[in-house]
Amino acid sequence: MTRRRLVAGNWKMHKTPEEAEVFVRAFLPLLRRDEPAEILLLPPFPSLDRAGRLLEGTAVVLGAQDLHPEISGAFTGGVSAGMLAACGCRYVLVGHSERRSLFGEDDILVNRKLRRALTAGLVPILCLGETLAERRAGETARRVAAQLAAGLDGVSSDDVERLVVAYEPIWAIGTGEAASAAAAEAVMAGIREAIGSAYGRPARDGVRILYGGSVTPENVGPFFAQSDVDGALVGGASLRPEALAGIVAAARPHGA
Ligand code: PEP
Questions:
Q1: Annotation marks residue 168 as catalytic
Q2: Which of 98, 105, 161, 168 is catalytic?
Q3: What is the pLDDT of residues 46-69, one digit of tens each?
Q4: 237: how many CB neighbours lie within 10 A of its CB?
Q5: Which pTM value belongs to this model?
Q6: Residues 132, 173: Cα–Cα separation, whole Å
Q7: Is 254 a known active-site residue?
Q8: Which atom of ligand 1 is nearest to 236's Cα?
Q9: Binding-site residues, ligand 1, Cβ < 6 A
Q10: Cα Rg for the chain, rounded, in angstroms?
Q11: E runs forming strands in 109-207
Q12: Which is the most buried residue in 77, 155, 226, 231, by most CB within 10 A?
């Protein structure tokens, strides 16, 4: 098993450039010299540049929370993949449930964004997840499979092998009520199998799948005991340096 675990902090609409700097200066000394996990911060757009400069030469990489699907043009308020790459971003979230529900993003737009990210050399983190009503109706696997297939439409096996999928049950995001590690593993194993069926074994074995939804240092341990959980996408807890460092510290390698 060679997949390196990834711990990603999604700051959402929090932290000015100044506050991002305070966070980074407090966070970096909390990390061990050779953390087994890859560590990723996802600040809001205005704080990317400041955070990116401070992270240069460190073990922490930079990503963004969204991108525009077009290369450039008259798209007021849009931020292109090229701009993100120029700020030092390596990753970008696509299809976060808040973008889908609050900004009206559908699977077609998510797919366009994902493919634009890949073209620009960014690694997309494709977010999937079911609502509470879908879960109660036994629709989780079907819902997640549909989002996965639509999000990856037209993407090559080679690209699937290097991208990241985040399984985030919507009812667990920001609620303090995480899924159980076993329930998350069951869905995530299904995602990996679906990728294997559609894109072949290298893609199945290479794609990294993160769990997201109310992850804290206190509850993350059992998730990292699961073979299909390749990391965590962390919202609220990522705003506090000690909490994010606690999650990173728990992220042991697969099989360790
Ligand atoms: C998220 O925003 O992707 C998330 C998982 O948030 P939280 O950890 O706060 O539930």
A1: yes
A2: 168
A3: 999 999 999 999 999 999 999 999
A4: 20
A5: 0.97
A6: 11
A7: no
A8: 9
A9: 10, 168, 173-174, 212-215, 233-237
A10: 17
A11: 123-128, 164-167
A12: 231
